[in-house]
Amino acid sequence: MSTASKQYKTLKLTVPKPFVYHVELNRPDKLNAFNRDLWTEIEDCFTSLNSDEDCRVVVLSAAGKLFTAGLDFTSMVELGQRLANQEDVARRCKILNELIVEFQDSMSSLEKCVKPVMCLIHNACIGAGLNLITAADIRYCTDDAYFSVKEVDIGLAADIGVLQRLPRVVGSASLVNELAFTGRKLDAVEAKESGLVNRLYNNKENMVEEALDIAENIASKSPVAVQGTKRSIIYSRDHSVQEGLNHIAMWNQTMIQSEDFMNASVAQATKGSVPVFAKL
Ligand SMILES: CCC/C=C/C=C/C(=O)SCCNC(=O)CCNC(=O)[C@H](O)C(C)(C)COP(=O)(O)OP(=O)(O)OC[C@H]1O[C@@H](n2cnc3c(N)ncnc32)[C@H](O)[C@@H]1OP(=O)(O)O
């Protein structure tokens, strides 16, 4: 089944430009808070987009007045009831471990998707939301946006990616530590200064419009090149420079033989028109 024809309860999918998917968190009346459906559908959606040859870039934004209020408190009540039904610590731990890993996998599905993922954040991006966006490749936000590693305020050590990814996204360990220990708001200007986002917009409409143009530009390039680039960037982030070089040498010894390399190189060298690349 193509991803475009899938129906989700908590996500809205559109294809506004060729090969560009727009995914929106779509629980605006619940401030896009993460309930079980949202966790599950994010993973399903990004896993599907990963293998969908009609998708080359994903733009992720949110419907309603803010990006997300983070973990849905009401879903925690259900969890409390499930735990209360188990007397033994090992059985309760099994439930919790499976749940945490499921949530981690949901966030990581953005990173595992080999198509570039661009996150567009407006207003509040709290708790689980910051975990989500740090698993994306590109982040833009509006001037009114703010970010909070809010877990500390609900008595939790953040456990679904932000403590692992945020230090790799922003340059200052001191800033990451301050944010994680205090839960304070990081505003849009600080977010740009720190490198969490690299563009600011005065409103959401302008942000979405320009991001879709940038996505269209990426989608016009060779999918072999773009997907290989994402794989190499993420591999290199987690390995030494030499290991990263070995990885891309191994990768490109195959991919340089692709028709995309020949067609794109000839077009560049001859100032010819942009080639139409086959689906991948
Ligand atoms: C194993 C777990 C792994 C995952 C961990 C994740 C952890 C986290 O995400 S920690 C962060 C949790 N979220 C929060 O602490 C945010 C709480 N909400 C707020 O601070 C404010 O609501 C917010 C700033 C988002 C918006 O403020 P605003 O004044 O615009 O609206 P409110 O009047 O406060 O809220 C409107 C209604 O929405 C309900 N609501 C808000 N947040 C949540 C939420 N996270 N879950 C469920 N419901 C939420 C709020 O109760 C209001 O409802 P009602 O009174 O019925 O209108």
TrEMBL record:
GO BP terms, alphabetized: fatty acid metabolic process
Compartments where located: Peroxisome
Pathway terms, separated by semicolons: Lipid metabolism; fatty acid beta-oxidation
CDD domains assigned: crotonase-like (cd06558)
Keyword Acetylation annotated: yes
Catalysed transformations (reactions): (3E,5Z)-octadienoyl-CoA = (2E,4E)-octadienoyl-CoA; (3E,5Z,8Z,11Z,14Z)-eicosapentaenoyl-CoA = (2E,4E,8Z,11Z,14Z)-eicosapentaenoyl-CoA
Pfam families to which the protein is assigned, alphabetical: ECH_1
Listed GO CC annotations: mitochondrion; peroxisome
Family per record: Belongs to the enoyl-CoA hydratase/isomerase family.
Name used for this protein in its record: Delta(3,5)-Delta(2,4)-dienoyl-CoA isomerase, mitochondrial
Organism of provenance: Apolygus lucorum
